[in-house]
Write a structure and sequence with these properties.
The chain has helices at about 15-30, 70-80, 110-115, 120-125, 130-135, 145-155, 180-190, 205-215, 235-245, 260-265, 280-290, 300-305, 315-330, 330-345, 350-365; strands spanning about 1-5, 35-40, 55-60, 85-90, 100-105, 140, 160-165, 195-200, 225-230, 250-255, 270, 295, 310. By secondary structure, it is α/β, with parallel strands linked by helices.
């Protein structure tokens, strides 16, 4: 059988949804030697995205490569030409004219439920979710939390929903090579002891409250605060606040994917107090590297962290500050969470995710999906 997938986000960067697509496709490559995969994109893919011959990269740019025109107008005809039997919209969307059964992954509903924290284009495209969900034969969500959000917003889609968790990259582990650690430290200007935030600089990441909490306890703890991630949006207030608070708060900018295990291994704790996440992958990435975690008590984050992280109400500066102090001053707590983190991370894998996704495909093709 020939399976089509959208992989265009992989051409942009190596965070979030692009990583989901990469790891899923790599999982298929290791598990499935019977099907052919057509990887559709409107932009050339990175050279390091190497796959077996049965994975064909197909560039579709007509009638125009932007604003979904390629995806909505040209892609359906290309799928017919390629003899595709099933298409997976990995980027939370499907063509309006689906020539074959479709599966869609919904990563989160923040753009639908929290439009004020997103850019205008995201708000506009997220309004098309009802159309995409009606077209889909099956809906994959990356967490039970996201599944509950879809059920609440679109109760008529409940029978289509299947939960398939994400996982940390399989090669993530504690970095012990001092040469590698020192290279990463110098490259990003990292202090000796620090707490780390990892993610894009955007409103739902809750960085202004995190910064306020850190400043309130900074005199009583030896740790700096390192904020790592892409520029994001709607973050002028955050950047101004960082500039006011001097050299104990460090912005590294985007971190190269190969440097992330080293960065996480150097950090004494990952602090991830997001207001809303569809999954919250940095939690597992930190655990895989032996880094204790503070994260939010809301959204999907308790589901991912289990009992292996310190949870705090992300709307409470006082709770975040208390968690920072507790983690900074209690070495026994850090070691306990480090051990629990390894066990928790082991419960998730991209092999399991790929197997479950393939099961969804087979269910749809056998008539079990809500066609």
């Amino acid at each position: 059988m020939r399976i089509g997938l959208e992989v265009s986000p992989v051409a942009v960067n190596a965070t979030g949804i692009p990583n989901y697509i990469r790891r899923l496709v790599e999982g298929f490559a290791s598990l499935d030697d019977g099907n052919e995969y057509f990887l559709y994109t409107n932009r050339p893919l990175p050279e390091d995205f190497r796959l077996p011959e049965r994975f064909r990269k197909v560039l579709v740019r007509k009638p125009y490569h932007r604003f979904q025109l390629w995806f909505q107008l040209e892609l359906p005809g290309r799928m017919r030409k390629d003899g595709i039997g099933l298409f997976h919209g990995t980027f939370s969307r499907l063509p309006a004219r689906m020539p074959v059964p479709g599966v869609i992954t919904i990563h989160d509903l923040s753009g639908y439920n929290m439009p004020h924290v997103h850019k205008r284009w995201t708000r506009a495209t997220n309004r098309l979710y009802p159309l995409y969900l009606r077209k889909a034969a099956a809906v994959i969500t990356v967490s039970e939390f996201t599944a509950s959000q879809v059920r609440e917003a679109f109760p008529w889609a409940e029978d289509k929903i299947r939960v398939v968790h994400e996982a940390a990259p399989p090669d993530y582990a504690p970095v012990t090579d001092e040469t590698v650690l020192e290279r990463v430290r110098k490259k990003y200007g990292l202090p000796d002891r620090f707490f780390l935030f990892l993610g894009s600089l955007e409103p739902r990441k809750n960085l202004e409250r995190l910064l306020e909490a850190y400043i309130s306890v900074s005199r009583s703890i030896p740790h700096s605060l390192v904020i790592s991630g892409g520029e994001g949006w709607k973050n002028t207030g955050l950047l101004d606040a960082v500039r006011r608070h001097g050299d104990r708060v460090i912005l590294t900018g985007f971190v190269e994917p190969d440097d992330l295990p080293g960065l996480l291994s150097l950090a004494e704790c990952l602090v991830y107090p997001s207001l809303y996440e569809g999954f919250g992958l940095p939690i597992l990435e930190a655990m895989a590297c032996g880094t204790p975690v503070i994260t939010s008590s809301v959204s999907s984050m308790p589901e991912v962290a289990g009992d292996a992280a310190l949870l705090a109400n992300p709307y409470s500066v006082e709770e975040i500050a208390g968690a920072l102090s507790e983690m900074a001053l209690d070495g026994g707590l850090r070691e306990n969470l480090r051990k629990k983190g390894f066990l928790r991370n082991a419960e998730f894998s991209w092999k399991k995710s790929a197997e479950k996704t393939l099961s969804v495909y087979m269910e749809v093709l056998s008539g079990g999906g809500a066609l």
